[in-house]
């Protein structure tokens, strides 16, 4: 018998090529999506600029400056000044802070409530499911804007500022997410791995948290982007109508509400056009990112 | 189908009761008195106020107050407006035609644009025109309706001067004449366009996708094989099949019209129910506020119900649930 010498050391060290995890595959697909990447970069820059606003600008935005009212754009005031003499560009940055913060907080709370209710209803089924879903239907049947305005009118002045708006929007907005998560969990829990996890004695909360939720996460992420865009629109629309964040807090919606005065609308477009454009771009960017994420997690699409 | 519809209708009753209870407690939680429209504001004599409060049932237990309010409401007695000093039912009757007119006109605009764009895009998919329509719709979805409204006023009313930016009709014209109706259409066109643009995008994309789906079906091949002209295939055979799923959108349109009317009517200072609602919140006009909130909830409820029933008609599998 001949002993085969181990001549090729390289052969031993080369491992079989490691296959990519679904997350890595999705990330790569997302990175290739130009539109989504540009949108993401835009959003990140916007967020950084907004959150660093107090450090990059030294202008006091809360002070009314009578000497500099309604100035058109110039090198000193890039986007001009508004009817109270405040710099529009600086207010835009501060407004982004509020608008993005409200958007993110509402999205987070809505996802939290919606996922919990949806997961519990879908996993346990039976009476728990029908009770929770009747309650969800009940919440969904309120006309959203009408009740946000009424609740805001009640709570305004009793509890402070932006928090009221976030709370009210979140309280009325979680129904859609709950329905979606429930339907996903319903189909997902029929799989054998859930049966296995339950039969080795996994408690329901552990089965939901460790086994079911990671599998519905992609749906939740896509839903989160849609929600984020919707919440920014809701905040700005409410503020525009005068029922959103308090008037003295700069937000994109509050800045836009200046356009309700005909002379501002007609003669001073620099006051209301910048927040309008930045708002539309932000929503477009979020939509593109949402489409990109959806596409990235879709195993059937090859782009 | 009848059984399903009846069951859904009956299921609406507890929902309505619950919503009315919520509205009632919200009104109680608001600062001020829910029935203060009845009390003469110039008479500040505490004895008079106390007497009126007793007469109006202020000092009754809450469930009695609720019962009085809801029985009055069902019989069409909505109370008296604090701000306008007239019964809320009259106020609603004044404003309702305007909102209805706006809603119907915006629906007509939605349908016109959606059918024109959806049919063009669906007939020639993946062409330049289709991509243009797709991109246009993407923009429409991203622009919030109030921003669209502000821009519409800026360009069409102020820069071009084509349309008025406020009101619902020219007051100088006599009611009921042809001029009056024309003036109404002229005043309502811009708000209706903005409101209608909201739904157009989703309608168009849905119609386009459905037409593309249907154009590969067997009945289309049969029609082509027997020599039917292409335009007839698209305008008759395919369109008839693609329109059926669209009717389910009608229920949701009712819901979005409620939300849209609030914003659009405010921007255009259009005297409809949405504007009345906002002014009643600002003026703490509780009777009006409660009536309108309940009315809007009712519309949303009916909208969801219509959507569900139409779904049941289009897709029979849903009825079993």
What does this molecule look like?
- The complex is a heterodimer of chains A (303) and B (321).
- Chain A has 14 helices and no strands.
- Chain A is mainly α.
- Chain A has one domain (37-52, 76-297): MetI-like (MetI-like fold, Orthogonal Bundle).
- The model of chain A has no long low-confidence stretch (mean pLDDT 82).
- Chain B is mostly helical and 321 residues long.
- In chain B, α4 (88-123) runs antiparallel to α5, α10 (249-267) crosses α11 (273-282) and α10 (249-267) runs antiparallel to α12.
- The mean pLDDT of chain B is 81.
- The interface between A and B is large, with 37 and 42 residues.
Topology:
The complex is a heterodimer of chains A (303) and B (321).
Chain A: H1 9-13, H2 22-32, H3 34-51, H4 53-56, H5 88-124, H6 126-140, H7 144-155, H8 161-173, H9 175-188, H10 192-199, H11 204-241, H12 252-256, H13 262-267, H14 269-296
Chain B: H1 2-29, H2 46-55, H3 62-74, H4 88-123, H5 128-142, H6 145-159, H7 178-214, H8 218-225, H9 230-246, H10 249-267, H11 273-282, H12 286-314
| Number of strand segments of chain A | 0
C-alpha Rg of chain A (nearest Å):
25 Å
- The CATH homologous superfamily name of the domain at 93-274 in chain B equals MetI-like
Can you give the mean pLDDT of chain A?
A: 82
Q: Assembly state here? A: heterodimer
CATH C-level class of the domain at 93-274 in chain B: Mainly Alpha
Structural class of chain B: mainly alpha
Number of helices of chain A: 14
Which structural category fits the helices and strands of chain A?
A: mainly alpha
Tell me the major beta sheet of chain B: none
Number of helices of chain B: 12
Order of helices and strands of chain A: HHHHHHHHHHHHHH
pLDDT < 50 runs, ≥5 residues of chain A: none
Gross CATH architecture of the domain at 93-274 in chain B? Orthogonal Bundle
Judging from the principal axes of the Cα atoms, what is the shape of chain B?
globular
Organism (chain A): Pontibacillus salipaludis
Membrane topology (chain A): Multi-pass membrane protein
Subcellular location (chain A): Cell membrane
Keywords (chain A): Cell membrane, Membrane, Transmembrane, Transmembrane helix, Transport
């Amino acid at each position: 018998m001949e002993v085969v010498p181990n001549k090729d050391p390289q052969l031993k060290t080369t491992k079989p090529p490691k296959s990519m995890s679904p997350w890595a595959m999705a990330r790569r697909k997302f990175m290739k999506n130009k539109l989504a990447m540009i949108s993401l970069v835009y959003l990140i820059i916007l967020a950084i600029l907004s959150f660093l606003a107090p450090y990059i600008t030294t202008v006091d935005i809360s002070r009314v400056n009578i000497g500099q009212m309604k100035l058109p754009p110039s090198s000193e005031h890039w986007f001009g000044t508004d009817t109270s003499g405040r710099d529009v560009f600086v207010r835009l940055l501060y407004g982004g802070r509020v608008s993005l913060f409200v958007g993110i907080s509402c999205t987070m709370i809505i996802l939290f409530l919606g996922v919990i209710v949806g997961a519990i209803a879908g996993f346990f089924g039976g009476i728990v499911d029908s009770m929770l879903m009747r309650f969800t239907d009940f919440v969904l049947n309120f006309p959203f804007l009408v009740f946000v305005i009424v609740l805001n009118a009640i709570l305004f002045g009793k509890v402070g500022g932006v928090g009221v708006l976030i709370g009210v929007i979140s309280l009325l907005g979680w129904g859609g997410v709950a329905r979606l998560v429930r339907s996903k969990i319903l189909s997902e829990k029929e799989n054998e791995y859930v049966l296995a996890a339950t039969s080795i004695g996994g408690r329901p909360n552990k089965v939901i948290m460790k086994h079911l939720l990671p599998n519905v996460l992609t749906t939740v992420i896509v839903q989160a982007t849609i929600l984020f865009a919707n919440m920014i629109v809701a905040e700005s629309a409410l503020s525009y109508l005068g029922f959103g964040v308090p008037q003295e807090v700069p937000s994109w919606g509050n800045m836009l509400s200046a356009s309700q005065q005909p002379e501002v609308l007609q003669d001073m477009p620099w006051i209301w056009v910048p927040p309008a454009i930045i708002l539309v771009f932000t929503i477009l960017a979020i939509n593109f990112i949402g489409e990109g994420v959806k596409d990235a997690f879709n195993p059937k699409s090859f782009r | 189908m009848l059984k399903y519809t009846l069951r859904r209708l009956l299921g609406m009753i507890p929902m309505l009761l619950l919503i009315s209870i919520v509205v009632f407690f919200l009104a109680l939680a608001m600062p001020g008195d829910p029935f203060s429209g009845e009390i003469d504001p110039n008479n500040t004599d505490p004895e008079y106020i106390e007497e009126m409060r007793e007469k109006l049932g202020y000092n009754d237990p809450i469930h009695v107050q609720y019962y009085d309010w809801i029985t009055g409401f069902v019989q069409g007695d909505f109370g008296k407006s604090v701000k306008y000093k007239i019964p809320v039912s009259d106020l609603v009757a004044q404003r309702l035609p305007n909102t209805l007119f706006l809603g119907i006109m915006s629906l007509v605009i939605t349908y016109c644009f959606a059918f024109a764009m959806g049919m063009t895009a669906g007939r020639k998919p993946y062409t330049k025109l289709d991509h243009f329509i797709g991109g246009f719709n993407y923009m429409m979805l991203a622009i919030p309706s109030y921003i669209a409204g502000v821009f519409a006023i800026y360009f069409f009313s102020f820069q071009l001067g084509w349309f008025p930016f406020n009101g619902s009709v020219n007051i100088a014209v006599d009611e009921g004449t042809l001029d009056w109706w024309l003036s109404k259409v002229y005043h309502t066109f811009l708000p209706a366009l903005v409101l209608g643009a909201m739904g157009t995008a989703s309608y168009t994309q849905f119609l386009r996708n459905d037409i593309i789906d249907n154009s590969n079906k067997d009945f289309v091949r049969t029609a082509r094989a027997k020599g039917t002209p292409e335009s007839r295939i698209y305008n008759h055979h395919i369109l008839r099949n693609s329109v059926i799923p669209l009717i389910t959108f009608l229920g949701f349109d009712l819901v979005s019209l409620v939300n849209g009317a609030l914003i659009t009517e405010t921007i255009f200072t259009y005297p409809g129910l949405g504007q009345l609602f906002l002014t009643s919140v600002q003026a703490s006009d509780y009777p009006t506020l409660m009536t309108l909130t309940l009315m809007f909830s009712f519309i949303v409820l009916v909208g969801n119900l219509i959507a569900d029933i139409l779904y049941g008609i289009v897709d029979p599998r849903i009825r079993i649930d």
